[in-house]
Amino acid sequence: MVLLGQEDFNEHRQLLEKIxxxxxxDLAEDAIxxxxxxxxxxxxxxxGQEVHHLLLFGLKPSEAGLSITNKRRLVRLxxxxxVRAPSLGTIATNTDEKRKLWEILKSIFEK
Length: 111
Prior knowledge:
38% of the residues lie in helices and 21% in strands. The protein is an alpha/beta fold. Strand 4 (74-77) and strand 5 (80-85) form a beta hairpin.
């Protein structure tokens, strides 16, 4: 599952497609994408057992209904693996952030 802001998605959809393609996922076929408007929140636990990976782009864990107090970018909560990343807009212009995200995604999805 990918969770991000509506505006971030609208402006950087192609980048998200490339990020997912790098780990052999297709945005349209393999990912559940949830777009939040400013101030909107979601209870990720309502999605049940089908969600094992959550990619948060530019959102706080609390906006996904999660209580994560540490600052780590990769957090396991029971059966849910949460990847915290800056917004796609930030990743698009920051090579260091791209590298950090790629290292995390490789550690999770590398075959």
